[in-house]
Design brief:
This protein is an alpha+beta fold and 171 residues long. The chain has two helices and nine strands. 27% of the residues lie in helices and 31% in strands. The protein has one domain: Umud Fragment, subunit A, CATH 2.10.109.10.
Length: 171
């Protein structure tokens, strides 16, 4: 499996989530590599999946058919000439609804032809998280999908309180 590093900078927060990879030439090369190899490891960048997937985590991606996705899965998809990695919310009509886990993330509509891969695992620091088997995975993913934004909101409030109480500067 090939690993491709992304830029380490976290983009400024905005109303529209930052793309996973935003240079069209690199996105096309990654798409071609995924189609050839069937697997790919990419370093995640951005804050739209916080707190569940932090910038710098490595996503292990496996090429997949859109019909194999379930609500709660992490999916890599084309967004115009860029790539994004977000959680599958639901299937609606002939398209998928996707969103980041961060509080206030907007829902995007993604067509089947734009779905490229499903995250099979995540490497966060030295810890590797893999997909859980069957029904357990689906229940866990649905719980994150349902409670993720609330947890992100609570985590941000807790971090702000911790900074004020202990005088910790933002890093």
């Amino acid at each position: 499996m090939k690993s491709v590093p992304a830029e380490s900078e976290v983009p400024e927060a905005s109303s529209r989530p930052a793309p996973f990879f935003d240079e069209p030439r690199i996105c096309q090369e990654l798409t071609d590599l995924l189609e050839r190899e069937g697997r790919l490891a990419l370093r995640v960048r951005g804050s739209s999946m916080w707190p569940w997937v932090k910038s710098g985590a490595e996503a292990e991606l496996v090429q997949t058919r859109p019909c194999a996705l379930n609500p709660g899965d992490l999916a890599l998809y084309r967004r115009g000439s860029t790539l994004a990695l977000h959680r599958v919310v639901r299937r609606q009509g002939g398209a998928w609804q996707m969103r980041g886990d961060a509080y206030g993330s907007c829902i995007e509509t993604v067509l089947d032809r734009d779905i490229l891969a499903r995250a099979e695992g995540l490497m966060i620091g030295r810890t590797r998280f893999t997909a859980l088997p069957g029904a357990v995975e689906r229940r866990a993913a649905r719980a994150i999908l349902r409670w993720g934004p609330a947890c992100a909101w609570l985590a941000s409030r807790a971090m702000g309180l911790r900074r004020r109480v202990f005088g910790i500067a933002r890093s």
